[in-house]
Amino acid sequence: MKKQILVLLFVSALTIFIHQAAMAAPHPGTATSTLVSPQLGIFRSPLGFQVSAGESGWKQAEAPADNKFIATIYKAPLKSLKSGDAGSLTVRVDKLSKDLALDKYVQKWMKEYPKYGFDVIGSLPFSQNKEKGYVLDLINRDSGKQLRQVVFLKKMKAVILTCRDQTTTFKESLGNCNKIIRTFQWTE
């Protein structure tokens, strides 16, 4: 009887161990880990920052495989669509080849925007969670898209959060984008 109970306990413990091992990610914090599950809406980058869907109601989506600079994407829920396009927010990472001040980095890009059809309608440095950031508002004169870019820079890494939508629905998306942007923080 004691032997049967011991065997039953051993098999139960082994089953639990195997189940936990099967559910675990190969490395915590990687794409297969529940720590970065899109359902949670939290993105923790190995480059030392995190961002979350927060109270926006937007869903995290996988980054496109063909763009190595995009770390993650957040998309507006389909139910909020009035037009054919949904608002989105991309999180892009640029590794700098040399140390550069935030305002110099932003000024460099502001010179480039007109080449791509964008007009800068506003720009402003700001502070969030004791970190310096820069916000840029843009309109594409050809596509009818409006963008808000928020740039954070630390240790030769620039993180650019870009909210985009049609100009007609941009204000609706902007509130939720700002909720996501406010969750950004450096973790190292």
Structure in a nutshell:
This protein is of the alpha+beta class and 188 residues long.
How would you describe this protein?
With 188 residues, the chain is α+β, with helices and mostly antiparallel strands. The chain folds into two domains: 1-36; 37-186, Protein Transport Mog1p, Chain A. The protein contains three helices and ten strands. Strand 3 (59-61) and strand 4 form a beta hairpin. The radius of gyration is 22 Å and the shape is globular. Residues 5-25 have low confidence and may be disordered.
Walk me through the topology:
Blueprint: H1 2-23, E1 42-45, E2 49-52, E3 59-61, E4 70-75, E5 88-95, H2 102-112, E6 118-128, E7 131-140, E8 145-154, E9 157-166, H3 170-181, E10 185-186
Antiparallel strand pairs: 1-2, 2-10, 3-4, 4-5, 5-9, 6-7, 7-8, 8-9
